[in-house]
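Students often ask why we bother predicting the structure of a whole assembly rather than each chain alone. The short answer is interfaces. A chain on its own may look different once its partners are present, and contacts between molecules only exist in the joint model. In this exercise we take two input lines together and write out one structure for the complete complex. Read the inputs first and try to guess which parts will touch.
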Amino acid sequence: MDLDLNAQEEAILARLDAIVKADVPLLREGASVSCAYDPALMEALRQSGLLDLARDGEQGRLGAMLVTQAVAKVGGMVPVGLHALLVPALFDTPPLDLVAIRRAGRDVPVAFATDAGVLVEVGAEVAKAYRVRPEQARAVASHYVIRRGHPALTGASPLLGTWPAALVVRRWQLALAGEILGTMSGALDHLVSYLTGRRQFGRELGSFQAVQHRLAELAVSLEALRCLAFEAAWADSDELAASAAAYAACAARTTCLEAHQLSGAMGFTLESGLYAWTLRLQALSVEAGGSQFHALVAAASHWDGAKACLSASGSSRKGAQPALVAADLQVE
Amino acid sequence: MEFGWSEEEARFRLDVRAFIQSELPDDVTDLVPGEDPYSQTSIAFCGKLAAKGWMVPHWPREYGGNDASVWMFAILSEELWAAGEPRGSQYMNVNWIGPAIIKAGTEAQKNQHLNRIASGDVLWCQGFSEINAGSDLASMQASATRDGDDYIIEGEKVWTSYASKAEFCFLLARTTGAADAQNSISIFLVPMATPGVTVEVIPTMLDVHQVHRLTFDKIRVSASCRLGEENAGWNIVRDALSDERVGTPRFARAEIVLDRVLAQAHALGESLHAGLWRQAAEARAACNAARLLSYKVRQSRARGMGAGPEAYLGRVAIVRAERAVAELAVNLMQEDSLIAGSLSDGEFRTSMIAGLGGGSYEMQLNLISRLWLKLPKGS
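Now the answer. The structure tokens for the assembled complex follow.
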């Protein structure tokens, strides 16, 4: 048992630091946030070899989790978790195309679908990867930072491979836990910085106990998630991955809401930049079925009695039709 | 990073479990801390632990320990807490009273106390809180006035566990005549048999645990009972209390309660819906998070890095875990959770005090704000 970073892990972070400083233009002070995929960052990560770490056992998966959370922390616009933690488990030679993922039978908006050339579909028993054409994906309007779309999967899409669904779900959950960890960390840094500088009633907002306790609660959740995510990456077990993802999804939702509540109207402006973390947290919190699905997987991995509930939960769902998309729910 | 246990550590956990299974009386969970049968059980059990070298394995050899790793002690603490903490008040001796004496005690104090603590045959209590000094411990009024080679101590301490059977009290008092009110607290290792010390039970809604009022009616104790320099007690106790934050691995017992209460509900024919299973998984994650955060604290201290703010994060996580399990237990058992002595009743009432014992939840949040997040001080 050793919860401190070793020299090798420190070196990974140092290399990442250099990459994101050079290649991540977004989230710099005062910059507006782009929703576009960042191919330059993706290429830099590929060239560095940091996306291949997870091939190297327990220590490799810990390295991959470090990479995932560090890129997410600076808001890197790439599916880093999938490429660091899932792709090495599926392909001996990583595809040059971007990888997107969804649950089979659920026609939902998929992150990076309009840029991804590989789609992984996770069924009840098996997961399959197909080659798809990103330019044919149907883009979906979404306010949640990352571009989303319906992948152009057809009967003619070439099949690239088949794997046990449990493996893919587990690595997808690790990826989500890691991305939420990093994004939450970025959000909390931003929030603390703002509330330390912002003065109202003649003093810093962050000096009020009512504010401090809420920030402290977020800090506990963040550090708890850090432990859970890294332990889950190390163990690569169904239960711990699902458990970390469930914890992460709940914490992501809370952080999104609390960060905006505590930042007031200023936090809603594009100028503040807060949304780049908070809306991404919200999006991550619902991916792969969200906390409800993750928690049920965790329960079924530990208690046999929960298995029936999990089996009953995986029914398919059509995508939301345009007519159902809240045209009549405009708020003032 | 590394999250696994060595073969030696894994074997040690199994050995501790087997020892508890064979040596702990079956009725231990029916006993009430503070009452005679519990204290007798504690003394008998700790004697057996000491004979195995497991009372203070992580202490230095010169003080009766075995220089064992922090992880051996973590495993031991988890297994003992999971079994209902049969050491009783002696967990305090091991976790922070002994270490405080090792750090600040005179040779005579070390000789007097450490061997007995290591042997598992002495009960202590702590004289900290007062009726008007709870969370704001530094405002205590109990006084200690120097009189030749002695001190005269006067005052009252409340909500003290284990006091009726304790042989010594780790007592905080304000030294009269100190120039600086901020630095006027001293620590006294007071024999409870000293004339003028009285102990009364304070009735509470927690029949699973007795607490007491201690009155010190101008008692006279030798200056040799003072731990550390005069007026230097606050730093010693603050350091000692940081051990206390995560010294009680409540999550280890909560995890077991979680499994048991699910089994109870199943045995009663309760059909668990998906929502309850999710809640169970979230409670289990909360326990695991508390365990890992407490390991971070233990690791920092083992490396001589002192008591960092991680201790406060760990303590909040422990309280969250206990509450999460209690809430599920009550949701599962519903009206049956109102039956006195039922598992869910015990867990719920234990969770009510989890955020107070060892420092209130809100004080931990204050400390996280100031020391971890570096937020500006309030006016």
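Check your guess against this: Chain A touches chain B through 56 residues (CB under 8 Å).
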